[in-house]
Every structure is written in structure tokens, then in C-alpha cells.
Amino acid sequence: MKKHIFNAGPSLLADEVYASAAKAIMDFNDSGISILSISHRTPDFDAVMSEADALFRELLHIPDNYKIIYLGGGASTYFYEIPANFLGKKAAYINTGVWSKKAIKEAKRYGEVEVIASSEDKNFNYIPKGFTIPEDADYLHITSNNTIYGTEYHEDLDSPIPVIADMSSNILSRPIDVTKYAMIYGGAQKNLAPAGVAFAIIREDMVDRVVRDLPTMMQFKTHMENNSMFNTPPVFPIFVLKETLKWLKSIGGVEEIYRRNQEKAQLLYDEIDRNPLFRGTVEKDSRSLMNICFVMAEGYEDLAPEFMAYTKEQGIVGIKGHRLVGGFRASCYNALPKESVEVLVKCMQDFAVKYAK
């Protein structure tokens, strides 16, 4: 039976990417050596890094005055490295959920944190609006998509201070204006690669703002100047990331995947809104394209285990909601085919036929 993988992460990748990764594991570049065993100090891997950089720049229209780096440690490592590098006296943060709160906690180790807006009052079911950005802060930090609660920023912010965005779960899912950000970072295990590598896109002048003497590995400048090769980079995840970028370019780039993502999300949200057995958990103007959260409607809560069992019988994997929200979460990342969403919608319709009062 075909599996329909809605995992929140690590998530599925395109079939073409799996195929090229499998081939490289056995024999990378017809070298007779596995990608898992090659030295990162070889021309072949230099070419991988160069191609990944060029593709990333092309797909997101990244200007020349930005550097792209690839590190281990995940986005959680950046939670403390960002304030360590850039927080002098005060930083502004917007709190939209678990990952924002983790970033705020780490930032408080290095200086004052002003939480200028929060959606915690409604269990993070919306993106805050109408806040004032303090011009005396060193930077503004946002989490652009919130996997647990299913909310997302749909526009790039205008800000008088540098904006730093955790885009772990929606990078390359929609067009963005990179010039509105001083730094974009994230774990790659949603839309780019298997777990093990985190990316950052950093405007070069930001290294002039570093406010303290840091261990060498914690300095962004170290990795920017050494093209992510100050120490051994995560070789295999970077290779897969490059292959994902190739796939994305081959289907029409970010504009095309955005169209597909909108189509998939609209299909599922329409069913949630139409179906009497289910209800969404997020304010409509804040709904995420990547992580679609919903629960059983009032009066039908007891059907949740049966619905989960039924979807599993149809090959659906990974739709159990996070424990902080409950219900269901369908993560519709870039590589998820529309067919999988159609199968989930059909399950919801079948349940309505069987149980709707």
C-alpha cells in the first residue's frame, strides 16, 4: 500500500531526490566511493557546495552581499548563537509558540529581551499584528511558520531594525524578499534534507555587529569565511539538500511550488470548513500552508481514535496532532503530492457520510 506521509519532520522528500541519494550512497559521482565515505576536502564535494550555493541563490534571488552556511546542530543551535553574536543590550522577539519561546529563553542569557507581541493568550492560534518594533533593539526575531500550532506569516515584515527569521518549516515554500531579512536560518529536515544540517543566509554586514568575543565555532564569521568548512560539514545531508534544490528548480522553482502548496492547503482547509465532523484550530488569516491543524467538532470528539485508525488503514502516516494542541496535524511540505491530500480529504468525507448527524 502506498504511504501518504504527513510527518511534521523529518519529512518526506521528492522521489527523484531519494533515487539520487541512494545512488550516491553506493557510488558518488562514479568515483567508486560512497558519499558517506568521501572526504569533504575533495573537488567533487567542493562542486556539491558550489552547486548548492548557486541553486539556493537562484531559487530565492539571494543577493551577492549574503553568505549561505551549512552547519550541524539544528536550528536550536542558532537559538543561542544568534544572541551570542548579535545581542548587545536588547533584542525584540515575537512569541508565536514553542520554538519562539525556546529562542527567547536562550536570548535572555545574553541580554534584555523585549517580547513585543505574543499570541499565547489564545494558545498561539494566530499571528500577532499591530505591534511596534523598537528602533533601539539590536534585531527583531520571528518564527515564520509554527509547526505545532499551524500558523504562518504570509508577508515579509517591514522593519527599522534587522529581522532574523527562523524559517525551518517553510523555507522555499513561497516567494520571499530576502533583502528584508538580515538573517534567515533553519533546520533542513522539513523541505530540504534529512536531519543533520541547518542552513543560514546571513547579510555580510551583520558580522560587523558582533558584540562579544566568542569561541571560534560560535562565531558566524568563522563559517562565512571558511565556506562552512572550518570543521567537517554534514556531507550527506548537504548533498541531499543540493539534490532537493535541483528538483525544485526542475519543476519550476519557488513560484511553482507555492502554487502547488496553495492548492494542497486550499483543498484540505475547504474540507475542514465544510465537514461537520471537523473544525480548524487557527484563525483563518493566520493559517499555515505547511502545517494544517484541526480537531473533531463539538459532539464528535469521541470519534478521534476511530478516525485515526481509519486513516492509518488508508496508508496515512503522521497526522496525530502535537500533545500541546491535540487533534490532527497534516504537514503538507513541498514534496507532499496533492494525491496524499486527496486521500486524507476522502477519509474525512467517508467519516461524514458515516457519522454526521
Describe what this molecule looks like in 3D.
The protein has 357 residues and is an alpha/beta fold. It has two domains: 4-11 and 252-355, Aspartate Aminotransferase, domain 1 (Alpha-Beta Complex), CATH 3.90.1150; 15-250, Type I PLP-dependent aspartate aminotransferase-like (Major domain) (Aspartate Aminotransferase, domain 2, 3-Layer(aba) Sandwich). The chain contains nine helices and 14 strands. A seven-stranded mixed sheet has the order 2-10-9-8-5-3-4, with helices on one face. It has a three-stranded antiparallel sheet with strand order 11-12-14, covered by helices on one side. The model has no long low-confidence stretch (mean pLDDT 96).
Highlighted features:
single chain, 357 residues, alpha/beta, Aspartate Aminotransferase, domain 1, Aspartate Aminotransferase, domain 2, 2 domains, 7-stranded mixed sheet, 3-stranded antiparallel sheet, 9 helices, 14 strands, 35% helix
